[in-house]
Amino acid sequence: MPAANLYDLLRESHERQRSLCRQLLRSKPGTRDRLDLLTALRIELSAHEAAEERYLYVPMLMDDSGLDASRHALHEHHEIDELVADVRKLDPRGEPWLEKARELSKKVHHHLREEEKKFFQVSGKILSDTAKRRNAAGYQRDYARMVRKLSDE
Ligand SMILES: [Fe+2]
Ligand SMILES: [Fe+2]
């Protein structure tokens, strides 16, 4: 089996994030389903962010031409985490919950689009082919470990 491509792996998680956001916004107020979807989205976001930061953005930060893009992306990861925390504090039966969840979904979509349209291209020029292969394996391992860890909490 050929080794997975780093950008394909990142985009796979992006698609899961988009799908979970869509399902979350369609979920019925106060249901178990709504809470399970929020947990699934939180785990997907956290695991992807951590592994992406370690295997995509750290090497980008080390290159002068990647500084702006990686700094911008890490800032958005933090904003997304704060929005997830905000949603979790709200009553899943209420309208404020849905408004906050919509805000989260918008931020996530904006971030994914910016990564796919800009930051991946910037990183593509910085990482060597060897680094891309090595970091694809590293990303995959770390993402899976983070999902396991967060699911056990
Ligand atoms: Fe990403
Ligand atoms: Fe990201």
Report a brief summary of the structure.
With 153 residues, this protein is mostly helical. The chain has helices at residues 6-26, 32-61, 67-89, 95-126, 129-152.
Description of the molecule:
This protein is mainly α. Helix content is 85%, strand content 0%. It contains five helices and no strands. The longest helix has 32 residues, at 95-126. The radius of gyration is 16 Å and the shape is elongated. The N and C termini lie far apart (33 Å). The mean pLDDT is 97. The site of one fe (ii) ion has 5 residues, from helix 1 and helix 2.
Helix/strand/pairing category: mainly alpha
Q: Give the helices and strands as they follow along the chain.
A: HHHHH
Envelope shape: elongated
Mean pLDDT: 97
Query: Which segments are poorly predicted (pLDDT under 50) over 5 or more consecutive residues?
Result: none
Task: Give the total of beta strands.
Answer: 0
Which small molecules are bound? Answer: fe (ii) ion
Q: Main sheet, how many strands, which sense, barrel? A: none
Distance N to C terminus? 33 Å
Quaternary structure type: single chain
Query: What value does the Rg take, in angstroms?
Result: 16 Å
β-strand amount:
under 5%
Q: Give the fraction of residues assigned to helices.
A: over 70%
